[in-house]
């Protein structure tokens, strides 16, 4: 009986919903943004992950697939227009909620959210990413760059005391970065391709935090970070070079260089509202960094080169 009732509900919803327009690249993109903006007004238990995944679908299909992810304890549905009585007879409260939500226009008072709605993390990031890509198309995957602009300038000023470790420490030219209305570098995360062409390092950055944008670094506040952790506002710097194999002089030089870099990255991350974590391959590397700056958050990844 329940399956028949639910089938009847879906047929009812398809009759209520506005038929989707013919698919097109621009139309799909507009539909996706409209769906994200509409869903942003609702509370989600999964941080909006389902909505982001299904955002390109017509709104009724999105709601059918993501309805269970709503925070139902914070939402009340009222059939103020009287058009969901058929649904309520067949599938109970779930049918009324779906019917109200998939309507082309939500009647005032039909959906009541208890408490203040904070836009779900995944939905906010998807909307922010779209806005940044629209405003700064050169940053949408074509940029090639380095960790920080100031680092390359610093490297040019300072004489090299030792051969640089191969791979992750090679830094190509700095890409242009988006700026906000004040002229400062934007705090919104912009994915850009991994720099350095160091496969073991990039694999560690993708899998250990884990990285929200696999295969990509992330540009925040004008600084390139190795990873933005999935589900939380944590930026990562990953170190995988074989620190334990260096002699004492080289270790000291390496720590001095890294401490300057990590403090700069931590300052930018915190200024933009992110936490900052350093991943190193060995305990010896972690201990050497903490001996200089005990406030760094350092995790031993065990990643190999």
In short:
The chain has 305 residues and is α/β, with parallel strands linked by helices. The protein is built from 10 helices and 9 strands.
Topology, element by element:
Blueprint: H1 2-16, H2 25-39, H3 49-54, H4 59-66, E1 75-77, H5 85-102, E2 111-113, H6 121-135, H7 149-157, E3 190-193, H8 199-207, E4 216-220, E5 223-225, E6 227-228, E7 234-238, H9 248-271, E8 275-280, H10 283-292, E9 298-300
Parallel strand pairs: 7-8, 8-9
Antiparallel strand pairs: 1-2, 3-4, 4-5, 6-7
Helix pairs in contact: 1-5, 2-6
Structural features, described:
- The chain crosses the membrane at residues 106-123.
- It comes from Corallococcus sicarius.
- Keywords: Membrane, Signal, Transmembrane, Transmembrane helix.
- It contains ten helices and nine strands.
- By secondary structure, the protein is an alpha/beta fold.
- Helix 9 (248-271) links the parallel strand 7 and strand 8 (275-280).
Biggest pleated-sheet summary = 4 strands, mixed
Number of helices: 10
Count of discrete domains: 2
Strand content: 5-15%
Note poorly predicted spans. Answer: 1-25, 86-93, 135-184
- Net shape: elongated
Mean pLDDT over all positions: 75
Number of strands: 9
Task: Write down the Rg.
Answer: 25 Å
- In terms of quaternary structure, the protein is single chain
What's the helix-strand series? HHHHEHEHHEHEEEEHEHE
The rounded distance between the terminal residues' Cα atoms is 59 Å
The amount of helix comes to: 40-55%
**Widest sheet, order of strands:** 6-7-8-9
SS-derived structural category? alpha/beta
Region (Disordered): 140-175
Biased composition (Basic and acidic residues): 149-163
Signal peptide: 1-17
Protein name: DUF6310 domain-containing protein
């Amino acid at each position: 009986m329940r399956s028949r009732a639910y089938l009847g509900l879906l047929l009812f919803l398809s009759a209520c919903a506005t038929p989707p327009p013919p698919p097109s690249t621009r139309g799909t993109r507009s539909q996706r943004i409209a769906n994200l903006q509409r869903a942003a007004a609702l509370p989600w238990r999964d941080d909006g992950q389902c909505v982001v995944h299904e955002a390109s679908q017509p709104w009724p299909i999105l709601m059918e697939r993501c309805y269970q992810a709503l925070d139902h304890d914070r939402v009340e549905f009222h059939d103020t227009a009287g058009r969901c009585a058929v649904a309520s007879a067949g599938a109970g409260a779930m049918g009324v909620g779906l019917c109200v939500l998939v309507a082309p226009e939500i009647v005032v008072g039909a959906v009541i959210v208890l408490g203040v709605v904070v836009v779900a993390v995944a939905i906010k990031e998807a909307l922010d990413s779209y806005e940044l890509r629209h405003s700064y198309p050169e940053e949408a995957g074509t940029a090639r760059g380095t960790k920080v602009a100031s680092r390359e300038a610093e490297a040019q000023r300072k004489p090299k005391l030792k051969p640089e470790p191969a791979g992750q420490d090679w830094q190509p030219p700095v890409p242009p970065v988006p700026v906000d209305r004040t002229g400062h570098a934007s705090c919104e995360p912009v994915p850009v391709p991994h720099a350095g062409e160091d496969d073991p390092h990039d694999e560690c950055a993708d899998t250990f935090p884990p990285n929200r944008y696999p295969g990509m670094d992330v540009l925040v506040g004008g600084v390139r970070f190795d990873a933005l952790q999935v589900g939380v506002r944590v930026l990562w710097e990953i170190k995988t070079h074989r620190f334990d194999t260096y002699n004492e002089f080289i270790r000291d030089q390496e720590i001095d260089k890294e401490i300057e870099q990590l403090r700069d990255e931590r300052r930018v991350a915190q200024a933009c509202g992110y936490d900052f974590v350093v991943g190193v391959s060995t305990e010896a590397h972690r201990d050497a960094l903490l001996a200089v700056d005990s406030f760094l958050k350092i995790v031993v990844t065990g990643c190999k080169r």
